[in-house]
Amino acid sequence: xxxxxxxxxxxxxxxxxxxxxxxxxxxxxxxxxxxxxxxxxxxxxxxxxxxxxxxxxxxxxxxxxxxxxxxxxxxxxxxxxxxxxxxxxxxxxxxxxxxxxxxxxxxxxxxxxxxxxxxxxxxxxxxxxxxxxxxxxxxxxxxxxxxxxxxxxxxxxxxxxxxxxxxxxxxxxxxxxxxxxxxxxxxxxxxxxxxxxxxxxxxxxxxxxxxxxxxxxxxxxxxxxxxxxxxxxxxxxxxxxxxxxxxxxxxxxxxxxxxxxxxxxxxxxxxxxxxxxxxxxxxxxxxxxxxx
Length: 292
Fold this sequence. Notes:
- By secondary structure, the protein is mainly α.
- The longest helix has 28 residues.
- It contains nine helices and four strands.
- It is elongated and about 75 Å long.
- Strand 3 and strand 4 form a beta hairpin.
- Helix 2 runs antiparallel to helix 3, helix 3 runs parallel beside helix 6 and helix 6 packs antiparallel against helix 7.
- The chain has a two-stranded antiparallel ribbon. Strands 3-4 form a two-stranded antiparallel sheet.
- The protein folds into two domains: about 220 residues, no CATH class; about 45 residues, no CATH class.
- Keywords: Membrane, Transmembrane, Transmembrane helix.
């Protein structure tokens, strides 16, 4: 923020003589109280909007236009990776995205407003690091399930059909919308809004980043552990046949839809995707067993 836009052009100093802009200790910043705002700009809103554009705007653009927060999904019909927008959203990646947007918006807007780079609290570090850890462990589980299920035809439940909407994707596991994911989403939404509310209310008064109580961090941790535990049991051998049947039927439906569309509008006819030999063999096996 240019010096001309600040209420005080002097550089505030911490008790140990460091410039506030480079103070690294969260305890030091907490102890300063309102002194953190000695060089603040006249209004917080411009800083908030600039940060919203830089952090949240970029994040949302990547969220909706790339595979940033989506699972890997392979089309059983072609055995090719689906386009990014057809892959389902990942709960673990969306959780990490949620806290990344919140915390980095707070840091960025506070810096533009005061010239002070906030030191992170243990709560903020755990929210970011814990979200990353859940995403990493979720990816490890996905890799193991891909190795187990996608030897010939992709039959993980994430592969069987294109993505639905974001909310359905993050709330759904192999059996559909699940209560443990709903609980985790509610917890993250409520605590995220509380984090933002505390930040806004603490401005101009004291250090603004919220510290969660032990029970709050425990609830978030248990919700994450529950998500990983249920996820590890998805795509098991007990549901292989059901997923094989769904893969074949979805492929048949896709081919039928292309044929119908071509018949209705021959001038805009699209070539039907070629079914892989592995899928054709799987279909023949299921038909021989009388399953389809």
